[in-house]
Amino acid sequence: MNIKNILVVCVGNICRSPMAEYFLKADYPNLHIESAGISGLIGHPADEKAILCMHQLNIDMGAHVAKKLNAEHLKNADLVLVMSHNQQKHIEQTWPFAKGKVFRLGHWQNKNVPDPYQHDQTFFDQTCLLIQQCVTDWKNYI
Questions:
Q1: 8 A C-beta contact, residue 12 and residue 37
Q2: At what angle do helices 16-27 and 48-56 cross, to 10 degrees?
Q3: Backbone phi and psi for residue 32, each to the nearest 5 degrees, phi listed first
Q4: Is the pLDDT of residue 1 over 80?
Q5: Nearest to 20 by CA among 140, 122, 120, 116
Q6: What's the CATH number of domain 5-137, 3.30.110.70, 3.40.50.150, 1.10.10.60, 3.40.50.2300?
Q7: Where is the active site (predicted)?
């Protein structure tokens, strides 16, 4: 599979998908990588706790602006990474053409990535670490 465009999806597009997007951008500077939320908080910056996690890893996520997932995002993507089975199911039911290119970010560990929204910084840090590990797991496939 020749992957040039990666789309990362979560619910609000302010915590998990931006973190994964920025890890992927750091690893694959030549690819087009973006993120969106199924219920995207359009125009919102990334969550402050998510920004802090990434800052501790020397990744600046300050420029992130949340957007809502649409069919166009999915059409342009070669690979769509979601955070849970439910999100995968939702996307495949809403946009059947996306079937076959939607996978959980934690696919290789058979894990969902829990939503840290409105949790404490420790939960965010743990989620950030899991996302980083999951992104690394995709290295052999991207």
A1: yes
A2: 30
A3: -90, 115
A4: no
A5: 116
A6: 3.40.50.2300
A7: 10, 16, 115
What are the tens digits of pLDDT across the range 42-70?
999 999 999 999 999 999 999 999 999 99
Task: Assign 106 to helix, strand or coil.
Answer: coil
| AA letter at 19 | M
DSSP 6: E
For 37, counting Cβ atoms within 10 Å of its Cβ (0-12 exposed, 13-18 middle, 19+ buried), the class is buried
Helices 121-137 and 16-27 pack at an angle, to 10 degrees, of: 40
Residue bearing tokens 């809502």: 68
Placement of tokens 């590990």 in the chain: 133
CA distance 92 to 15: 22
Half-sphere exposure of 56 (CA within 13 A, CB side): 14
pTM: 0.96
